[in-house]
Amino acid sequence: MDLRLSDSDEAFRAELRAWLTRALPELDSPPARDDWPARVRYDTDWQRRLFDAGYAGMSWPTEYGGRDASPTEQLLFLEETTQAQAPYVGVNFVGNLHAGPTLIAEGTDEQKAAHLPRILRGDEVWCQCFSEPGAGSDLAGLRARAVRDGDDYVVNGQKIWCSFGHVGEFGELLVRTDPDASKHRGISWLILAMDSAGIEVRPIETLLGSSEFSEVFFDEVRVPVVNRVGAENDGWRVTNVTLSFERGTAFVGEMVDARRLADELRPLVHDATDRHELGHVLAQLDALWALTMRNVTQASHGTPGPGALMFKLAYSEARDRLGELSMRVLGRDAFDVHDYRVEERLRTLSIPIAAGTSQIQRNIIGERLLGLPKEKSWE
Amino acid sequence: MNFDLSEDQRALQEGIRRLCEGRFDMTRVRSGFDTSVWTELADTGVFSLRADGFGWADVSLTFQELGRALVPGPLVWSHLAHGVVDGVVGGLERPRRGEPAIVEHPGDLDALAVIDDAGVALVRPADLDPGAPLTWPLDPLTPMQRIAELPAGEPIGDARLATAWRQAGAVLTAAYEVGMAQACVERATAYALEREQFGRPIGSFQAVKHLLADLAVRAEVARAAVDAAACTLDDPETGDVRRAVSGAKVLAGEAALGNAKGALQVYGGMGFTWEVDVHLYLKRAWVLNTAFGAPAAHADALVS
Ligand SMILES: Cc1cc2nc3c(=O)[nH]c(=O)nc-3n(C[C@H](O)[C@H](O)[C@H](O)COP(=O)(O)OP(=O)(O)OC[C@H]3O[C@@H](n4cnc5c(N)ncnc54)[C@H](O)[C@@H]3O)c2cc1C
């Protein structure tokens, strides 16, 4: 057990740093949060630069244009790019980290050829249409209906919370293809062209006052059957396969930012209570960094440990404490959301909700790790 | 970077766990510390691990197991003093002038190490004023004696040794605390599976399940901090020793205390009895939180 980087990891880091030093000054200043055309241009331009430099698709296999980097290199990549304040993955998130890996694992050759190179180059923006008004935590209860008609599915229903839905060109779409099967069994996974006839996208205003996600309405939308990924009614398994690509690095960028914010608060805390709280938060963030290294090590050995299922819950709580502390320390300065620390407090309110709420995380830890029985009646 | 136990470390962990299960079951643990405990641990090599070529990460794993089993005694001090002083060694931070010292395990010590900023001094038990034993010590497995004035003792090391012992002592105490926190998760989970109310195991109720999930996460996060601190002691270039040590002591202290209290709640009325072991974990957590720097002091140190 050690924390020492290998020579080749150090070499990777040095090479990446050198490239970042050259590449970052060439970028324009980042666009405003609500200027979506500019955000798409900015984020996809960065993706293209990563591609040209050989840093796109860090975790993807080389046969699909990826770098097939070791988990440690993936961790270093995220750490270094965040530390250098390079652009975030932004609108490329779903394509790079979710849709792409799903197609790699389950797509046909045609589907792969059509999308993977374009995702890597930043030519294609994806979004995720999974959640519905009636199916959030209980995602498998989704009801958007797809009925086969010749070579097409005809889709009716509604999706919600679709991040980048109003700028995505393609969507990952989960639909119910067999309403009579048990709820996990009748779901299929489709590639959705967001410009298909019958789709209406309505942005939702978040508590930041901007539109990060949308409602999507489907009225007789035709999706070619060749766009189905995996077998009909096997969509739940397809959805979960993607998760196995996660190498424990999901929150690395987040954590680098959180540590920077916590360090910045040091000179601002004066009374003893706030100092103790900041000390606790620093300890938690350091420990979560260590837990990330553990998760990454275990993932690279192919034996994910308990930390992988625990990370999000623990991070949500540490980040909330940091957010509250920064509000308290800023006092009346916190009334201006232009202060990025205030904006961060608001943004991070979504962490305990998105991608599985903290309550759902606790159910998973209690049932899968501790072996406690499910609560009766509904499962 | 390979932040997971090696094969050898797994074997070491397994070995110490078996030792504890075989020789230090709760009946033995409840009878408290005596020289036979020390001798058996010494014979197994627990105190000489470093001299035998093991690293702090290995020692930390060992202390995690000792804490899980709640093996009593001045084990951390005896480990620190190995090679410097023979026998059962206890210790403490020298209290500020005018404040009494509370010495743990007073009847069993061959020597008492006293740390202050200037260095480490050794006091022979014969030179201690008899003081007043605490007749109702908070932790029944840690007998204590209040002593009005600690003698200066014989210096055995300078400020460098004091720093080294403070840091390693904090990490090993934190390791012991993480083991305690983990034991509380295991015990409370087992009880939640077995105890039934309303016709089903109480562990199926979300209020209980979520409480246990929080305990499990707290122990795991603290373990990562402790392992990282031990690795940083082994290879200081890979991190910031002070920061890693303080972080470990903060989180492990919280985990030992929080998890003992959480477990007590899961046990219901049984948790308030002498019979169920949880109170012993809780009381030890309070004691250890004062050793090698209280969490609040370490939290403070992290900010400055
Ligand atoms: C910023 C953001 C981005 C998102 N992006 C996307 C996206 O791109 N695509 C997409 O498909 N979805 C997206 N989501 C949706 C997200 O996955 C859901 O919001 C989340 O799964 C919770 O579902 P819900 O909002 O319906 O809440 P609900 O499921 O209604 O939950 C409400 C409350 O009930 C609790 N609860 C529910 N079930 C249980 C239970 N069994 N036990 C205990 N408590 C329970 C929850 O913990 C929560 O506190 C996004 C959400 C956010 C906030």
Q: How would you characterize the overall build of this protein?
A:
The complex is a heterodimer of chains A (379) and B (304). With 379 residues, chain A is α+β, with helices and mostly antiparallel strands. Chain A folds into three domains: 7-88, Butyryl-Coa Dehydrogenase, subunit A, domain 1 (Orthogonal Bundle); 126-233, Butyryl-CoA Dehydrogenase, subunit A, domain 2, CATH 2.40.110; 251-369, Butyryl-CoA Dehydrogenase, subunit A, domain 3, CATH 1.20.140.10. Helices cover 45% and strands 15% of the residues of chain A. The two termini of chain A are 40 Å apart. By secondary structure, chain B is α+β, with helices and mostly antiparallel strands. Chain B has three domains: 7-80, no CATH class; 89-158, no CATH class; 160-303, Butyryl-CoA Dehydrogenase, subunit A, domain 3 (Up-down Bundle), CATH 1.20.140.10. Helix content of chain B is 54%, strand content 11%. Chain B has ten helices and nine strands. Chain B has helices at 7-23, 26-30, 35-44, 56-69, 75-81, 159-194, 206-234, 241-266, 278-289, 295-303; strands spanning 89-93, 101-104, 111-116, 119-123, 132-133, 144-147, 154-157, 196-197, 200-201. In chain B, helix 6 runs antiparallel to helix 7. Chain B is globular. At the A-B interface, helix 8, helix 9 and helix 11 of A face helix 6, strand 9, helix 7, helix 8 and helix 10 of B. Bound molecules: flavin-adenine dinucleotide (FAD).
Which key features would you list for this structure?
heterodimer, A: 379 residues, alpha+beta, Butyryl-Coa Dehydrogenase, subunit A, domain 1, Butyryl-CoA Dehydrogenase, subunit A, domain 3, 3 domains, four-stranded mixed sheet, four-stranded antiparallel sheet, 11 helices, B: 304 residues, three-stranded antiparallel sheet, 54% helix, binds flavin-adenine dinucleotide
